[in-house]
TrEMBL record:
This is Uncharacterized protein YaaQ. It comes from Alicyclobacillus sacchari. Pfam families: CdAMP_rec (PF06153). SUPFAM superfamilies: GlnB-like. InterPro entries: CdAMP_rec, N-reg_PII-like_a/b, N-reg_PII/ATP_PRibTrfase_C.
């Protein structure tokens, strides 16, 4: 058994959730925030049998697309100097960042 953790853009989360349900794949959605853009994104926790990992990856790939985002300069007021960006930059976000972890035990009570 594996735990797949997928960080996706909010714009893609409804589509991904729908496509997982369609294929009877269980998932938990968590509201999350990107460390770099400080923008909202969605983290999916998906517990899945080993042989389904590639199928889930391909569903994620089909459901999520990359987008360009302009990062406006952030005020150093209220934000730490470490994350201060003094000029606008273009970053490509997504489609999805996916981690696959081994699960030691899986129980449901
Ligand atoms: P953010 O951290 O807000 O990053 C948004 C996008 O900004 C990233 O897209 C990447 O293109 C860019 N970026 C991030 N850190 C950067 C840096 N130090 N310098 C220059 N550009 C940088 P993605 O790579 O597609 O990541 C989308 C979101 O996925 C991230 O949002 C974060 O929430 C998550 N993520 C990505 N890599 C991760 C990792 N290794 N561990 C945990 N979460 C990760």
């Amino acid at each position: 058994m594996k735990l797949m953790i997928a960080v996706v853009q909010d714009k893609d989360s409804a589509k991904l959730a729908q496509n997982l349900v369609k294929e009877n794949i269980r998932a938990t959605k968590l509201a999350s925030t990107g460390g770099f853009l400080h923008a909202g994104n969605t983290t999916f926790l998906i517990g899945i049998e080993d042989h389904m990992v590639d199928r889930v990856k391909s569903i994620i790939q089909q459901s999520c697309k990359a987008r360009e985002q302009v990062v406006a300069p952030m005020s150093p007021m209220g934000a730490s100097m470490e994350s201060y960006i003094p000029y606008p930059v273009n970053v490509q976000v997504g489609g999805a960042t996916v981690f696959v972890l081994d699960i030691e035990q899986f129980d449901q009570f």
